[in-house]
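Good day; I would like, with your permission, to put a structural problem before you. A protein sequence and the structure tokens that stand for its backbone fold form the material at issue. Thank you for your consideration; the sequence and its tokens are set out here:
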Amino acid sequence: MTVMVTAEFKMKPESAETVIQTMIEILPDTRAYDGCQEIKSYYEPDTHTLLLVEIWESSEHQQKYIGWRVETGLVASVSEMLAAAPAFRTFEIRSDI
């Protein structure tokens, strides 16, 4: 089942530009990852918050992707620049509602 995943990153003010640059560099690989259909990003400068809205073929595809990012060390390196743990939410896309 197709899902929409939101990922919210509250960044430390002094790290915001570094995190944004990192996302610019890595999101092309994310968009090309198996099962990823779309990613849009939104930035709120006053709070240094980045919101990603992702569409995945299934939650399993997205979880496999997250596992890959953990394995490569990206999650650990970005986490150090965040003011709080990232918040992920997964929504079923329902066309019948």
The first helix runs from residue 16 to 32. The mean pLDDT is 96. The first strand starts at residue 3 and ends at 10. The CA atoms of residues 30 and 36 lie 7 Å apart.
